[in-house]
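ok, trying the design again with the full structure, not the truncated one.
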């Protein structure tokens, strides 16, 4: 059965993106600061279909595990627009559902990546993603507003946060506007490293909280 997972990196002060985001400045220019741990792993570059001299350590195994368990992605329009101009073809290797008000035909890339543009909310996107995932997990990929919507709706089963030892100071926080009463969090795993701290949580829905789907 598919799990709904959020797997995101943040700074020590809680930011997942900087300021002045856009296609010419993805994530507000902070990708290297909070995702630097991935750049040293071959698994990351393999996912982008880019040859590298890097090798995989334990964190490469984390990347491989997350990629292998993911059967579909859900993301917001802003994240899609920032990546559309620079992502390699067939990076995702599965179906991606983009939450947007824009009406647009599916974009099928060479390989097995197809972007579908969903105009009727997170529940519709999740229903379609579950069918596409065929029993594998569904990754809520961002940005922050999309993650917050799924968390507040009580729809997330697992949260994997990678905390980089840097301060961003300004930008977009991942956990702003979160309803603290939806879940009880249980730490499943803590993995320290030189460049980040990985913490995996199970999200147990509180009994007095109804799930929207």
């Amino acid at each position: 059965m598919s799990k709904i997972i959020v797997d995101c990196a943040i700074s020590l002060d809680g930011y997942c993106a900087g300021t002045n985001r856009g296609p010419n400045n993805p994530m507000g220019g902070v990708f290297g600061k909070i995702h630097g741990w991935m750049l040293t792993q071959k698994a990351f570059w393999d996912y982008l279909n880019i040859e590298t001299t890097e090798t995989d350590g334990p964190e490469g195994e984390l990347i491989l595990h997350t990629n292998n368990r993911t059967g579909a992605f859900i993301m917001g329009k802003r994240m899609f627009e920032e990546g559309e101009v620079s992502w390699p073809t067939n990076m995702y290797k599965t179906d991606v559902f983009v939450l947007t008000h824009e009406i647009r035909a599916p974009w099928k890339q060479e390989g097995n990546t197809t972007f579908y543009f969903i105009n009727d909310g997170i529940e519709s996107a999740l229903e379609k993603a579950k069918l596409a995932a065929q029993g594998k997990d569904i990754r809520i990929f961002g940005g922050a507003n999309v993650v917050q919507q799924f968390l507040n709706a009580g729809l997330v089963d697992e949260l994997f946060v990678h905390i980089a030892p840097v301060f961003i100071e300004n930008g977009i926080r991942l956990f702003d506007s979160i309803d603290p009463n939806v879940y009880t969090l249980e730490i499943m795993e803590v993995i320290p490293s030189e460049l980040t701290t990985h913490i995996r949580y199970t999200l147990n829905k509180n009994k007095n909280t109804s799930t929207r789907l």
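Keeping the full-length input from now on. Residues 94 and 114 are 7 Å apart (CA to CA).
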